[in-house]
Amino acid sequence: MSQSITRDNFDEWMMPVYAPASFIPVRGEGSRLWDQQGKDYIDFAGGIAVNALGHAHPALNRALKEQADKFWHTGNGYTNEPVLRLAKRLIDATFADRVFFCNSGAEANEAALKLARKYAHDHTGPHKSGIVAFNNAFHGRTLFTVSAGGQPAYSRDFAPLPPGIRHAVFNDLASARELINDDTCAVIVEPIQGEGGVVPAEPAFLRGLRELCDRHQALLIFDEVQSGVGRTGELYAYMHYGVTPDLLTTAKALGGGFPIGALLASEACASVMTVGTHGTTYGGNPLASAVAGEVLTLINRQEVLNGVKQRHQWFCERLQAIGQQTGVFKGIRGLGLLIGCVLDDRYAGRAKELSMLAAQEGVMVLIAGGNVIRFAPALIISEEEITAGLDRFTRACERFVSGGSS
Predict the structure, then answer these.
(1) Cα angle at 139 between 10 and 120, to 5 degrees?
(2) Residues 200, 166: contact at Cβ < 8 Å?
């Protein structure tokens, strides 16, 4: 007989670095999940912008099972067909000439920052090692990437941190200009700050960063871990802005729920990484690569990307109405299906409370700090699921502003 599992077991057995919801999902289909008691939830969280095609998508299931019946893993002493096909798809669809595969967004960003320092070391010298990042950014949880992320709450307990990283104000080109100089090897930026509050970059800001990097021979890194793979209505957000980086990191939605990350690079940048300079045991394994290849095939189609833009309108129109009806929000921002609702000042710091009420009503949402409710649903979520989910969210907002939990 299998062991009975409850939410209390998390508190007994797991390292307490998360505070998960009170329910345990056990089954999913499309944009719905069911918990152990059979209650259904409409999923507007998308596994934190991961489940771009929803849950249990039949094409992804088929790709995984077909590869699982062949072989799972060999290590990086060998290559495989799925990873080579995936690399070619990414190269054909983007600015990139070369790809490095890993297992997560943090690893992709770690690889990008290492590459940037090696590029500067090889072309200029060891003094050119400075990295400019931005306040309220999030680039991962490794020591290097948590240092680049401009959120001290995530890094201050792990000092001493890697040196040579300075933070400018996001969307403030003058602030960046003060820090970027000839000793800068890289500038890393999210086209849309996700964890930092769902804040899109202004086009002039990204254009200015591109110009500053060119002037000072620094590499421009776009962290598209959250904004990539169709999330904004373009395959990658740099296409929306018309600004091309030297390096781009991608993960989350790339595997549709199966762990995979990638660093995309121009030929000139990639050439500094030679045998032995970097690596990963699991990166580019055939299982992840087969699934990610199917994800790209399904998402990188104009009808899907246009559908993201249409769904953005559906969400924003209804969320604006909810805000007017309840007074809970003072603004809505974002691109595509990465949307943030900023709480009115009266409710500052209470986003988690509202998200928990939403779960009670049967809809899963995210937060982005204490003041923003974040939506990152499947890119193909149906209009009916959007309507039903926002009906549930409306009830949660009404309970929230009335101060009631019943």
Answers:
(1) 145
(2) no
Annotated binding site for N(2)-acetyl-L-ornithine: which residue ranges?
Answer: 141, 280
Helix (H) or strand (E) holding 396: helix 383-402
- Portions of the chain given CATH number 3.40.640.10: 71-299
Give strand pairing partners of 33.
28, 41
Longest CA span, the chain: 66
Residue 63 C-alpha from the chain's centroid: 23
pLDDT digits (tens, 9 = 90+) for 344-402: 999 999 999 999 999 999 999 999 999 999 999 999 999 999 999 999 999 999 999 99
- Could you tell me which residues are beta bridge partners of residue 29? 32
Structure tokens at 327: 């007074």
The H or E element containing residue 98 is strand 98-102
Distance CA 180, CA 164 (A): 12
Annotated binding site: 105-106, 138, 141, 223-226, 280-281
Residue with tokens 């009503």: 361
What's the topology of domain 71-299?
Aspartate Aminotransferase; domain 2 (3.40.640)
- pTM reported for the whole predicted model: 0.96
Contact partners, residue 196, CB within 8 Å, separation at least 6: 135, 136, 137, 138, 150, 151, 170, 190, 368, 369
| Side chain identity at residue 236, one-letter code | Y
**Is there a cis peptide before residue 259, judged by omega within 30 degrees of 0?**
no
Q: Tell me which residue has tokens 């307490």.
A: 16
Question: What's the full length of the chain, in residues?
Answer: 406
Q: Which residue has the tokens 């996001």?
A: 170
Q: Which residues make up each annotated binding site for pyridoxal 5'-phosphate?
A: 105-106, 138, 223-226, 281
Whether residue 405 has pLDDT greater than 70: no
Indicate where the chain has its CATH 3.90.1150.10 domain(s): 8-57+302-402
* Pairwise CA distance, residues 332 & 102, whole Å: 34
Fold annotation for 8-57+302-402 = Aspartate Aminotransferase, domain 1 (3.90.1150)
Q: Which residues pair with 219 in a beta bridge?
A: 186
Rounded to whole angstroms, the Cα distance separating 149 from 133 reads 7
Structural element, H or E, at residue 341:
strand 338-343
Reading the block at residue 57, the tokens are: 């998508």
Q: Both tokens of residue 16?
A: 């307490």
